[in-house]
Amino acid sequence: MNTTGTRENVREQIAALLPRLRRFARNLTRNPHDADDVVQIAVERALTKLEQWRPDARLDSWMFKIVRNAWIDELRSRGRQNRIFTGAEAGEHVGESTIERESDLLSVQSAMARLPEDQRAAVGLVLVEGLPYKDAAEVLEIPIGTLTSRLARGREALQAMLQPEGGTA
Amino acid sequence: MNFSDDTLAAYVDGELDSAARADIEDAVRNDPSIEQRIARYRALRNHLQAAYAAELEEPVPDRLLAALREPESRGSPAAADLEAARAAKARRAAPGTVAAARWRYSLAASVLIAAGAGFLTWRHTHIAMMENVDGTLVAQGSLAAGLSDQLSGDGTAGSPVRIGLSFVAKSGNYCRTFSASADAGLACRRAGRWEILALTKQGATEPADAQFRTAGSALSGEVLEAVEQQIAGEPLDRAGELAARGKNWSSTPPP
Known about the structure:
The complex is a heterodimer. In chain A, α7 crosses α9. Chain A has nine helices and no strands. Helices cover 68% and strands 0% of the residues of chain A. By secondary structure, chain A is mainly alpha-helical. The longest helix of chain A is centred in the middle third of the chain and has 22 residues, at 59-80. Chain A has helices at residues 10-29, 32-48, 59-80, 88-93, 98-102, 108-113, 117-128, 133-140, 144-162. By secondary structure, chain B is of the alpha+beta class. In chain B, α1 packs across α3 (32-53) and α2 crosses α3. The model of chain B is unreliable at 73-81, 91-126 and 204-218 (pLDDT under 50).
């Protein structure tokens, strides 16, 4: 997939990114409804500031960043309203499907949902969405060293949950 | 030479320059423990990729496409705020409690299960058969070649890939199940490449050298479930496979 392009077809390019934006937003929010809300906000915001996007920059990174900022704004807003945000509904249910009870293993998604937000975002961008470290760090507005340490902690936690006999390969 | 965990992870993530990569690849030849550490990172990465692949196949809600298509007909840019989204959310019948259902139905949630303890043995560490391309796990190398060239049930000398069955998906794309060394999965042809939609480790009880096993019989429940979700009609027969291969597996209109 070509992730850079021209302004002319930028709407089509964003449309093509929607499945990935939704996937990333689900990782962030741990709730598909919140995810779609956040993606919708992000799309609307992006369209109001298309001139800020440089066609030589990765459109996916740019959009991921807008998605993440929209989610941060939403969390702040919820905080103001004194609403509890823990993601607990999603986090507690995802591990309870029959198939997962039969196995002692967690699904990948439920394991991800148990990671702290900062690790989840780093893992989601690099290991799921395939962004280079540099772009992922830019999306999260953190130095690369911070990104790699979040990745390392995230990977370690996921391996502990997903590969319970880890290290014995 | 000692390599830090971060360095080996960066190797798997494609973040090292060619000199640093060469250092690692040299070291691996003399020290299998490095290969095991690399395999662990690569397994996790591919595992995540495969588990999240199905989410990309879900239809995008109209409201998101509409937000893109008709920006001029919307009100002021102030529409891009949370009130609008909350209003939209309030209009929807079901609140967030469907989350659990979504997960349950998710193919991705089940992909892991077959992985089990044998997951760590990731063969062909250095012959990448899959690669993360912009967030999609895509077949590479011998796997891509096998998916494009081999017919179901036929082994090709020197190829680690066996094709199970081929079919047309509801999307109109061609999909094929495969097994390749320790992996089994489902790949669908899209945009000139084979995207991996499901991936499991083969069970540890199966012989590593399963020359005489038909790939179809070896497919795990998870992969078959993915097939059932995708398939439109019946699997292709040999003539159908030949015809599809003849046009390089380019998609047919949805049935």
